[in-house]
Design goal:
The chain is of the alpha/beta class. It is built from 13 helices and 5 strands. It has a 5-stranded mixed β-sheet.
């Protein structure tokens, strides 16, 4: 007999033996185990056990029910959000575009390291809770979602444009070049591109969506792949160029980075075109 069946049988047996005023789910058999299974682990609460908990007057039982209901509301809300950010894809799938690629970049504003771009084609009807603009997610959540996206995608690609190219063609064109390389690296020819506020220089039908990483699930997925890949690369750069804190700030112009620049000067992966007169003066004032 399964744990659940033994638990339900125990609850029903106990219910027959207690009076209406003393009725409660046995503490040892239910509250601790139910809290672990249906709150901590997030498993669906069976109707039979939920009914028993509703008859249990103890605060612990009330807390379990409240936590379960709160999770249900959150999931309903997340389902509605996912449906909303999938509306561009659903429209294109309905029109016969099966291979829709989302494209986004990461690392436009750092003072060091490359700019990255991700491209991803998701299966029709794809929905994974939590996928959102990478900037809204913490590092742990991005790292949790990235392998899920890679493993379930029809195709995905991440491409880089390094600091030398950034200095040569400027960051705007470097971002577009990274996006083009990411699309070309898919290995599957997309039928349509959804791009975050840009137009990729490729002969593929496409739509640019302002704040697309917030509004479009494939662009959000691409942003997560680009961000996590670049973050991993900057951790490697931190080992090769110690003292700047690249593993922590990923090259962005935070106070820690500026202080290290003022003390150590630029390293080989710094974007010389970003070291403007204003920044140099700012660094000098911090010495």
């Amino acid at each position: 007999m399964s744990i659940y069946r033994r638990l339900v049988a125990t609850i029903r047996f106990a219910e027959r033996r207690v009076s209406a005023t003393d009725r409660a789910v046995p503490e040892k058999l239910t509250l601790a185990k139910l809290r672990l299974r249906y709150v901590a682990k997030g498993r669906p609460l069976p109707a039979a056990i939920e009914s028993q908990l509703k008859d249990d007057p103890r605060p612990g039982a009330r807390a379990i029910l409240a936590a379960v209901e709160r999770r249900r509301r959150e999931r309903r809300s997340e389902g509605q959000r996912l449906r909303w950010i999938s509306r561009f894809e659903r429209e294109l799938w309905a029109r016969g575009f099966e291979l829709v690629a989302g494209v986004d970049e990461a690392g436009m504003s750092p003072l060091a390291g490359p700019v990255a771009a991700g491209a991803v084609i998701l299966p029709i009807g794809w929905r994974v809770p939590g996928v959102d603009d990478s900037k809204k997610l913490d590092a742990a959540e991005r790292e949790r979602l990235a392998p899920i996206i890679r493993e379930s995608a029809v195709a995905w690609s991440v491409a880089f444009v390094d600091h030398h190219e950034i200095d040569r063609i400027n960051i705007y064109w470097a971002g577009l070049l990274a996006m083009r390389r990411a699309v070309e690296g898919l290995g599957v020819a997309p039928q349509y591109l959804l791009v975050d506020a840009r137009r990729v220089d490729l002969p593929i039908e496409q739509k640019k969506i302002f704040k697309g990483d917030e509004k479009c699930v494939t662009i959000a997925a691409a942003s997560i792949l680009a961000k996590t890949a670049r973050d991993e690369l900057m951790k490697k750069m931190d080992r090769e160029h110690p003292g700047y804190g690249f593993a922590r700030h990923k090259g962005y112009p935070v106070p820690e980075h500026k202080k290290a620049l003022a003390k150590l000067g630029p390293c080989p992966i710094h974007r010389r075109s970003f070291l403007t007169r204003q920044l140099v003066a700012e660094l000098a004032s911090e010495e």
